[in-house]
Amino acid sequence: MNFKLVIQFLLLLSFYHGGFTNELYLSCGDHGFDDIACMFSVNTTYQITHTTVYFWHEGITNDDISIIVPHYSFDDEIFAPNIPSFLCDTFKNLKYIRFYQGVKAINVNTFKNCHNIEYIHIGRNELRELPKNAFVNQQNLKTLYINNNSISILHSNSFGLLSNLRTIDFSSNNIDAIDERIFDNTGTREIHANNNPCVDSRAYCYGKLY
Predict the structure, then answer these.
(1) Which one, of 143, 178, 142, lies nearest residue 158 by Cα?
(2) pLDDT tens digits, residue range 148-188?
(3) pTM of the complete model
(4) How sure is the predictor about 207, in pLDDT bands with cuts at 50, 70 and 90?
């Protein structure tokens, strides 16, 4: 047996699938977008500790990246829970970020450093709760998708002071209670709330939650 070839194969396997490291792999270029985008892949349930970025074109830096989307072969069974916050720390000028099939929880630090973000899509995941002040620093956020999760309650300060928020979609969740003050400090114009218990049953959804 050629052990050298075996070792090379294993190293290549870990390179593509992250099998031996807690590393996030990003391939960055135009990817068909107007702006510079990164497609990520990861194969670990553990906390990401570092990232490897591969730029398709010379001259691109982390500050040029404005879009983050999953790679087409993304494994929906394995997802490191700190990927969003890790990316926000790495790419300071993100405007568009999407994660699906694997996000189990977010906290107040998940999007803390995404100050320029305008579009967040975390629909079709496994979220059960939306923490208070989860989006407190996202003053430029215009569109938020949290649809197709398992969220049951929306608190008054779930969205902070999102004066630029125009569209929110929390359809297809398990929401049976919505704080009546939830949109007081937002600029929301378009709300998608269908396929939730308190909406579909025409129950009294709104009240003050503490």
Answers:
(1) 178
(2) 999 998 887 888 788 899 999 999 999 988 877 788 888 88
(3) 0.80
(4) low
Phi-psi region at 101: left, alpha or beta (left = phi > 0; alpha = psi -120 to 50): left
* pLDDT at 81 (0 to 100): 65
Digit-coded pLDDT (tens) for 125-136: 889 988 888 888
CA atoms within 13 A on the CB side of 61: 3
- The Cα–Cα gap between 56 and 101 comes to 26
119-121/67-70 β-pairing:
unpaired
Give the amino acid at 141: L
DSSP states along 74-126? --TT---TTHHHHHHHH-TT--EEE--S------TTTTTT-TT--EEE--SS-
Q: The tokens of 119 are what?
A: 């579009």
Location of structure tokens 């830096």: 61
CB of 55 within 8 A of CB of 29?
A: yes
Q: CATH 3.80.10.10: which residues of the chain?
A: 103-210
Name the DSSP letter for residue 207. E
Fold of 103-210: 3.80.10
d(CA 210, CA 207): 10
* Contacts with 3 (C-beta within 8 Å, 6 or more apart), sequence order: none
Mean pLDDT within 36-41 = 85
